[in-house]
Structure prediction request, 161 residues.
Amino acid sequence: FVDELMPLLEQAADNGEEARVMTTLNPNDPELVDVSDLGRKTTTSGLSLAKTGTAYTNVMIEEYPKLHPKLAFYNIFPGVVSTPNMNAGAWWTQPLIAVARVLIMIKPEESGERMLSALLNPEYKKGGFYLDNYTNQVSVAKENEEVRKAVLDHYRSEVAV
Prediction:
């Protein structure tokens, strides 16, 4: 997650600076955590893996403020952003993408401004926050204590340095 940065973030908070961590996934689109397959070694579905990443991130956004109470942690949905990656699809998807650009996509600059406004919002100074693409707080399905502990233990044993 962000353990390598924690000493610097804690020091900044101790010096009176605001210290915040932002992740950019859709907090409202998680998959339930399967504690029998942490690390998703047996799952091969790309969509399932993406939703699991969101679920793990949501657990961290809930748990890390308990470990680092002077800091703020966010999981924010950046929106459907019109990026050059959108041009990489098959030729037949381009008309659909062109319509989506007009109807639902936002420019990268607008997405960035929204996320920056969340980082600067005094309401979100300390704690854990789940935000939509307009920087409003959203309710997310939360895992129980046993699942959150399993995810943290897995993270500490497999990922953390």
In short: The chain has a mean pLDDT of 89.
